[in-house]
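Priority: medium. Attachment 1 of 2:
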């Protein structure tokens, strides 16, 4: 095959109908055909050319036969049409310049219509012959091309053309004047294409199966790993990926990120992911989404039909019946259209002999076949098993679409069956070639061609059976004897999201390799290897061990002996032995913080009645070896200052030399969450009885799984709640007895709450502003936005003067009514303006609730502010916590944010030992008032 030099420049820019038609199918084909690229043999393309030539010749002969020889001119000159006397001309060649190119066309036929009056020019009507029974838009554009070329040649307008097509010689009239604009546009595009010395970007499309350049283009596409190899990807999606720097299937495969499907989306159809298809191709493994199950109840009957699309004629019905013990193949052949009813009745008779038949086919072609046959031919009883099987036929393609991703470039039956190991023995390579084979049989009535078509159809049924069995076996455990193509199956829900540039642990094939790798870690080397040969490291290790033991207590406390047994209450107790307990803590002074170690001395006693040994109870001595001040300091740094727990351990060890073990800050956080669990519950109870409640939610990732954190807030309290999903059932239960106003965004989950609602106007304002920026010339949208701004601005001024008091805000209610009256009269033309109008109308009762209640804000600022606090803490957590850990975080964060709302320091509250935040805030207020009074009296 001759290769085209990339430096070719089309000096003579000649555009013929063949070049024009090629561009309508594919720009690459147009470029190759114009450059004279030698094509490979394609049976269907050769058949189309033969049919076109023979049909043109036959129709020309038929039209000429109806006219006398004096009114017919063969191959006349297009330059002498003004003096022409013929009525019909055939084979006229026209040439005309159009911009930088030359249009050249050999018109199939031209009809000359004499002028109606004297001195008027005759009208010329180009005629084109199309052998197919159905016409497409491209056929009319080809006639439009002929009309433009003829009009340019004669310098007069050609407003009408004719197309003769099909076996019945149907003639239709086409208004070519309506096609001129589109033809000119296509010609300009072709001119720009051919003037470029480089070949255009290669893009595979559906026309490739009919194209003579298919082997060449497909080979280049495989070499480039081009995105157009993915059959379902359209041009818009490819351009979007190209703008992101993704040009190959392999590059696309690395963009897939598994995501958990929300519960609200479980009943909806799964979205098709091109990136997952690319991943399946790269890894050469079948990827499944969810748990696709194919249930076959009854006897499977595999159906494949062959037909002639342009005639709506079905000439071959293939049935493969699998009854478990044997397989029977039926091939029902129709010689003519009249035989179609016969093979349909035979098809129904075969189904009647099958017990509980279940029809299985691949694609929509058979679906349309069954529907048309029911309409054309009778013979079905509505209550029969056959009628039910036809009505409930299974399209296997729809069952695996977006659920099962085979490592093939398309979801075609041949690609998937070949991946599963099936091979076709027929000389027919594709379904489109069957059209040519059937026409060849109609001409020659050759039994070998009929047998070839029957064999091809039977193998399609067999391939369908193999694919169906493979899909049924995807969710079953694969045995050693199973098909090798089904052993590597990946469940997308179990995949972890991988970051190609992140740090991650290596998964070693052999355990010994893992041991060798661990021995190379920096800590292991210094603590286990270098220390044995480096004296400095050895001395440093011994000094660190001694320093831990040498921490002398700052205070000794002798615990009082008990008076009775704490278990049974008996007074018969006696000393058992002496013991002590060292508590590591911090001491806060007016000038700073220092290490503080307390040693508790006590006698253990034994009860003579129950014979239990126990320690004396004391208020200062707890079960932990860390004091309350150290706990407060650690939690303060973790929650308030948002320091990672590992950093807290290191800083305390560096500053106070307490030698805390790893994860001590995490254990202190867990202990603090238990201490303040009752405080957290009291905050939730207070939020339930408030005058209003702000609510918002945000997402968090917990070890690869998505969860949601909800924030509940008012002016004095804040509480965070964790749920596994965004479902709103829990918030409805929480607000069951709530009588205040719920302030929220526009999430539909809050609609079910039985209480007054105030939607956040800031959310609406931002969305409206975004739409205005995206549609700056939408006058309807601008009118709605201006009216909304004029409505809300006076309300904000009133709030600024008098605060959130309904007696001042009620005066704006008439303005709200006027706004909605004007909105109802507004006719919106654009979809964006209609959408924002519907949003205003659907939320009418919830946008201006704050005008009727005291103290209710018009925005969700409190909740959003609290969400920001959690978002910053979430950045520190980075998804490495557990569900238990995030709940502990939320308990302490709720207390911390409530302290901020009440104007007290979180650290002071933790050190105080108080459990009620409001009581602590009130005590601080009384203390400040006392000090202020004393200062006033003193002065």
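Attachment 2 of 2:
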């Amino acid at each position: 095959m001759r290769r085209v030099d990339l430096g070719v420049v089309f000096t003579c820019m000649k555009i013929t109908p063949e070049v024009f038609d090629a561009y309508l199918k594919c720009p690459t084909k147009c470029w190759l055909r114009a450059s004279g690229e030698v094509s490979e043999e394609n049976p269907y393309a050769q058949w189309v050319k033969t049919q076109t030539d023979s049909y043109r010749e036959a129709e020309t002969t038929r039209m000429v036969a109806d006219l006398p020889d004096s009114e017919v001119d063969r191959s006349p000159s297009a330059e002498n049409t003004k003096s022409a006397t013929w009525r019909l001309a055939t084979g006229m060649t026209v040439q005309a310049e159009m911009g930088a190119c030359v249009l050249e066309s050999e018109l199939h036929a031209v009809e000359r219509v004499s002028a109606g009056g004297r001195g008027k020019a005759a009208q010329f009507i180009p005629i084109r012959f199309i052998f197919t029974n159905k016409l497409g838009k491209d056929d009319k554009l080809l006639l439009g091309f002929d009309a433009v070329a003829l009009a340019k040649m004669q310098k007069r307008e050609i407003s009408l053309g004719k197309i003769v097509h099909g076996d019945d010689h149907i003639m239709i009239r086409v208004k070519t004047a309506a096609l001129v604009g589109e033809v000119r546009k296509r010609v300009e595009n072709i001119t720009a294409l051919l003037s470029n010395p480089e070949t255009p970007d290669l893009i595979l499309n559906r026309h490739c199966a009919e194209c003579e350049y298919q082997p060449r283009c497909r080979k280049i596409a495989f070499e480039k790993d081009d995105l157009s190899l993915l059959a379902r990807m359209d041009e818009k999606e490819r351009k979007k990926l190209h703008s992101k720097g993704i040009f190959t299937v392999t590059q696309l495969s690395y963009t897939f990120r598994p995501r958990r499907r929300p519960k609200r989306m479980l009943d909806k159809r799964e979205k098709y992911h091109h990136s997952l298809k690319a991943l399946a191709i790269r890894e050469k493994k079948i990827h499944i989404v969810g748990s696709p199950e194919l249930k076959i109840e009854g006897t499977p009957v595999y159906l494949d039909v062959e037909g002639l699309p342009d005639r709506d004629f079905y000439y071959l019905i293939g049935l493969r019946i699998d009854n478990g013990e044997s397989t029977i193949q039926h091939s029902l052949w129709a010689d003519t259209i009249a035989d179609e009813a016969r093979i349909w009745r035979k098809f129904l008779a075969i189904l009647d002999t099958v017990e509980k038949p279940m029809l299985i086919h691949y694609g929509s072609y058979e679906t349309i076949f069954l529907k048309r046959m029911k309409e054309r031919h009778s013979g079905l009883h509505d209550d029969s098993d056959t009628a039910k099987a036809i009505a409930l036929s299974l399209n296997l393609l729809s069952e695996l679409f977006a659920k099962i991703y085979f490592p093939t470039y398309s979801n075609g039956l041949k690609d998937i069956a070949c991946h599963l190991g099936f091979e076709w023995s027929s000389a027919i390579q594709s379904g489109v070639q069957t059209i040519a084979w059937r026409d060849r049989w109609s001409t020659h009535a050759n039994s070998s061609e009929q047998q070839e078509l029957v064999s091809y159809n039977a193998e399609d049924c067999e391939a369908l059976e193999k694919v169906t069995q493979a899909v049924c076996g995807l969710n079953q455990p694969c045995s050693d004897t199973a098909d090798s193509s089904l052993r590597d199956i990946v469940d997308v829900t179990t995949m972890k999201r991988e970051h190609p540039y992140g740090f991650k642990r290596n998964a070693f094939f052999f355990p010994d390799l893992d041991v060798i790798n661990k021995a190379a870690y920096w800590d292991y080397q210094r603590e286990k290897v270098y220390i044995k040969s480096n004296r400095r490291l050895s001395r440093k290790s011994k000094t660190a061990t001694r320093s831990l033991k040498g921490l002398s207590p700052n205070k000794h406390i002798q615990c009082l002996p008990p008076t009775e047994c704490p278990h049974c209450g008996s007074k018969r107790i006696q000393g058992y032995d002496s013991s002590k307990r060292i508590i590591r803590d911090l001491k806060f002074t007016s000038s700073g913080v220092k290490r503080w170690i307390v040693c508790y001395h006590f006698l253990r006693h034994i009860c003579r009645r129950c014979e239990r040994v126990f320690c004396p109870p004391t208020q200062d001595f707890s079960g932990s070896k860390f004091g309350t001040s150290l706990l407060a300091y650690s939690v303060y740094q973790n929650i308030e200052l948002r320091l990672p727990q590992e950093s807290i351990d290191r800083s305390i060890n560096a500053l106070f030399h307490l030698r805390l073990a790893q994860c001590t800050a995490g254990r202190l956080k867990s202990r603090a969450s238990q201490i303040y669990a009752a405080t957290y519950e009291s905050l939730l109870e207070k939020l339930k009885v408030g005058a209003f409640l702000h609510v918002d939610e945000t997402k968090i990732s917990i070890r690869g799984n998505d969860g949601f954190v909800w924030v509940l807030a008012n002016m004095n309290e804040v509480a965070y709640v964790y749920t596994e999903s965004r479902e709103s059932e829990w918030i409805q239960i929480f607000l069951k007895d709530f009588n205040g106003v719920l302030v929220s965004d526009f999430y539909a989950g809050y609609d079910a709450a039985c209480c007054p609602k105030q939607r956040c106007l800031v959310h609406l304002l931002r969305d409206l502003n975004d739409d205005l920026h995206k549609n700056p010339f939408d006058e309807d949208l601008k009118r709605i936005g201006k009216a909304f701004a004029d409505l809300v601005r006076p309300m904000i001024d009133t709030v600024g003067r008098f605060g959130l008091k309904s007696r001042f805000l009620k005066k704006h209610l008439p303005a709200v009514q006027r706004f909605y009256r004007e909105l109802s009269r507004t006719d919106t033309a654009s979809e964006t303006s209609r959408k924002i109008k519907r949003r205003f109308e659907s939320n009418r009762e919830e946008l201006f609730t704050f005008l009727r209640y005291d103290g209710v804000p018009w925005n969700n600022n409190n909740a959003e502010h609290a969400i920001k606090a959690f978002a910053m803490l979430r950045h520190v957590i980075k998804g490495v916590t557990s569900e238990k850990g995030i709940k502990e975080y939320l308990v302490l964060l709720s207390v911390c944010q409530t302290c901020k709302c009440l104007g007290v320091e979180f650290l002071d509250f933790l050190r105080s030992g108080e459990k009620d935040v409001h009581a602590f805030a009130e005590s601080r207020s009384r203390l400040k008032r006392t000090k202020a009074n004393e200062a006033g009296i003193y002065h």
